[in-house]
Design goal:
The chain is α/β, with parallel strands linked by helices and 281 residues long. 43% of the residues lie in helices and 23% in strands.
């Protein structure tokens, strides 16, 4: 059994009594290529894999390696040359473009590097849009959006327009918009690519916490190594194949353990100092 499956197996067994992790995304012999100046470039070559409910998977690699293509195929923005993309039991490659759009609207949240907020809409209007498109009333959408915006730290900015926000704030709006309608799958394509290091790290942790709290599947394409310690699985694309990078994941786990140990040591030291001060009073 795969380590992620083992972890999810135990969580499911303890919390629900069920022992089988649910696949949210299944890629079946997925292939995609492009023609560039009369040359065929293979991006994905018969890739088969499953991603599970509540999992956080990272796709690593430089620009042009195929990360964005894979996310576009998973979300139904692009269509494969061959193979299937099954999201929560539905093979979206068999759907018409219109039906696929409706399915994506209801089941998939997308976070882009460039934010892709609608500049003529306020923060509130940007976030309520996906929820209203599901058929919910404006009032219901505003109640839901107000709650999500508070969780991403933007309470009080509901009436602001995107051009009045910093890059980090705009990406927070994008996160709220992606999760407000409770999608089964969230894909994030270089979500911190336009942000400075500190802001990017904050946004990554916010996104991870939001999706994990909701039990959602998050698949992220990034070149950032900072997020690896928090990933369940790490992949890279080489010669059209999706390869699990267990070594990077192992190193990431060690880094995470070191950071947590350091944090606990600092907390214990601070508590000891506090007790010493109290004892001297």
């Amino acid at each position: 059994m795969h380590p992620v499956q083992s972890r999810l197996y135990l969580i499911a067994k303890i919390t629900t009594g069920f022992a089988v992790p649910k696949p949210i995304v299944q890629l079946v012999s997925l292939s995609k290529s492009y023609t560039e100046t009369d040359n065929k470039r293979v991006i994905l070559d018969e890739v088969t894999i499953q991603f599970y409910e509540g999992e956080f998977a990272v796709l690593l690699g430089p620009s042009g390696s195929g990360k964005s293509t894979m996310l576009n195929l998973m979300s139904g923005i692009d269509a494969p040359d061959d193979g299937g993309v099954i999201v929560n039991g539905t093979d979206i490659t068999t759907l018409s473009e219109h039906t696929r759009t409706i399915f994506r609207r209801n089941h998939i949240g997308i976070i882009f590097q460039s934010f892709n907020l609608i500049p003529t809409l306020t923060v509130m209007e940007n976030v309520t849009l996906p929820y209203e498109l599901q058929g919910n009333s404006r009032k219901q959408a505003e109640i839901k959006a107000t709650d999500v915006l508070a969780k991403v730290g933007l309470a009080g900015r509901e009436k602001s327009y995107p051009d009045r926000l910093s890059g980090g704030q705009q990406q927070r709006v994008a996160i709220a918009r992606a999760i407000v309608h409770q999608p089964d799958l969230i894909v994030a394509d270089e979500p911190t690519g336009n942000l400075d290091h500190h802001t990017g790290e904050t946004i990554l942790k916010l996104l991870l916490n939001m999706t994990r709290d909701a039990g959602k599947t998050l698949i992220m394409a990034t070149h950032s190594m900072d997020i690896i310690p928090y990933a369940d699985r790490v992949f890279r694309i080489e010669d059209g194949k999706l390869i699990e990078d267990t070594e990077r994941l192992r190193i990431g786990a060690e880094i995470k353990a070191e950071l947590e140990a350091k944090m606990h040591a600092e907390l214990a030291h601070s508590m000891a100092q506090l007790e010493a001060v109290r004892g001297g009073l």
